[in-house]
Amino acid sequence: MRGFRYGLRMLALAILIPSAAAETVTRGPYLQMGTSTAMTVRWRTDMPSASRVTFGTDIGTLAGSSVVEVPTTEHVVRISGLKPDSQYFYTIGNSTTALAGAGDPGYSFVTAPPVGTPSRTRIWVIGDFGTGGAGQAGVRNAYAALTATAYTDAILMLGDNAYDSGQDQEYQDHVFAMYPALLRRSVAWPTIGNHDTGQAVDPPPTIPYFRQFTLPARGESGGMASGTPKYYAFDRANIHVVCLDSMTSDRSAKGAMGTWLAADLASTTQTWIIAFWHHPAYSKGTHDSDTEMPLKEMRENMLPILEAAGVDLVLSGHSHDYERSYLLDGHYGLSRTLVEAMKVGPGDGRPQGTGAYIKTPGAHHGAVYSTVGCSGAIGGGRLDHPAMVISLGHVYGSMVLEIEGQTLVGTFLNDQGAMPDTFSIVKQAAVAAPGAGSAP
Amino acid sequence: MPAAASPLHVAQLVTALKRWAAATVLACVAGSAWAHGDLHERILALSAEIAAHPDDARLYRARADLYREHGEPEPALVDLDRVAALEPGSPRLHLAYALVRADQGRWVEARAELDRQLLATPCDGQALTLRGNAEERLGAHGAAIADFTAAIAQAIADNDVDPELYCARARASAALGDEHLAEAIRGLDDGCERLGSPIALMLLAVDLETRSGAIDAALERLDRIVAASQAKDRWLARRGDLLAAAGRAGEARSAYAAALAAIAGLPEDRRGNPETQALAQRLDRSISALALGGGDHP
Fold this sequence. Notes:
Chain A is an alpha/beta fold. Chain A has helices at residues 2-20, 134-147, 168-176, 180-183, 208-212, 256-266, 293-308; strands at residues 25-32, 39-56, 64-79, 87-93, 98-100, 108-110, 121-126, 154-157, 187-190, 232-236, 239-243, 272-276, 313-316, 322-328, 343-345, 357-359, 367-372, 388-392, 397-404, 407-414, 421-427. Chain B has helices spanning 7-30, 32-35, 39-52, 57-69, 73-86, 93-104, 107-120, 125-137, 141-158, 163-175, 181-195, 199-211, 215-228, 233-245, 249-264, 268-271, 274-291.
């Protein structure tokens, strides 16, 4: 009889224990708001549970841990006190059990170097990618083949991250299921596209974009506090990156976003300034920057602020093409108003062509503008914007940025692994006038 | 522990979801016309669909949005008229009219449409905000404050607060006269507390505090901006300007000297750029002018 009761008890345990501890990771983990000393780890489970991340620099000894006890299916854990420029391994789980990552080097990330350090940084730039199609997969595979085991420091998502209307299942299928390995190792920095809001310019905070991304509204990753996740900044090495919202925020120069942008840029000491948002300032692809209001307003209102602060590179999507400009300054009107004097760097910017763009620090020394809206959706258009060195239609691809010290190299990588465009910007040191800036 | 959802919150959530769902439905209705091609092509595609389905109000609504995005208000209004005829109860139709009227700068008509919209949906945050903007344009600052305040309350309930609303309300208060500056600043402080001191709110508060003569409050706020900033030179220069304008010459000199020291500590490329050099020269001149009992500040 005792044996029978014992058997029953074991059977009950066998049924109950797995169901009590069997939450499954259904999304992620993915990384947000990375800095030189902190990282936010997010994931989703099918059942509510506590959230725990264990972490350490030795894959066999994950001595650090951070726990959030409130049960949830949307897990958000901020880990801090990390060493800069260091590889950390991690697991995710509930308060007692690791659900994923144990002993797996694929669950690791590298913290940023200290702000201002001229370390080598690799950024993958994808726009209008979230279709879930073969083209998107091809772009992903080409990038994986190019980089092999090399680390990606950041991923810039230029909007239209999940077609057709940014719904949760679309994000699941077209983003999290498409890049699982990359997203658990590299920090993703998104901006809002028209398809992420279902075309709404005033979307509620309940849309998946806002619910699933943790973004530095309070200046958590460098830069000044914007007060909203819709536009923000972050620092990585000697690069300052600003993300603007061309879809749902006031696009006027004196609005909250324009005011924030000017103040944020006045406050950075970083060597490089990169900006990104969805609607391109210059495009003659599947969208026309001469006729569409969001594109015109971003060009007329935001570009003067950016160029006055010495922006180097501006990235957008929306047009399902690849377009890349000369080193430009002061072109805020329609395409027909472009004059040669606005091409600060009139060459092609190619190291193997007319040479890299040479740029001295300060205002109005030129920026490269590129539309990379072809990482999952493609199209055509006139593709004849006079600001562009190159305009390519009907080609899937992404941009790979390599920045080290005073040199930035941007490469357009298509889904076949070819690189039909590469440009480079080299920063030349400014020479301070004698006595200028000397403290009394 | 999250607070239990009140019936009001649930209703607001439902409203928000309906708003998004309506936009999503429009997107789906328009199908490929939304997703691909430039605006002109998408308008042509929708026109073809309208030719095939001339009584489908959703198609006209979608095309009106595209016309608006394309900067063509007149055809947008024609399409909205067609929507009104085909589906008089179309959700947020008055708001759609108001958006076009606002694009045209016809604020009286915009406000009238928004009055109608808000009778039907009094908690519509976008309509409240747009009516606040319309009232501001028409000089009705008190009414604008009321609408912006209602929009902020709605945004708080929706957990969708934006710095823009706080700035708009503060500007409307300030436009009522100096006796309303304290109220304007209090509103900005509320926003700072809720949103983590966004720089747009902080800078507007500095301006209003300066205007109201609350120099020390403005200085304290500038100090917080200096502390949060990697490059402190321009904020310290502004601190000096503020003190110089207030006749506090000794403190102004110190602030200018601190700005020069901050410049000296900048990375070489930032220190050597023309704008920073121009600032350094201006600071030198300001210090000299203050020593002579004059001033040289913007």
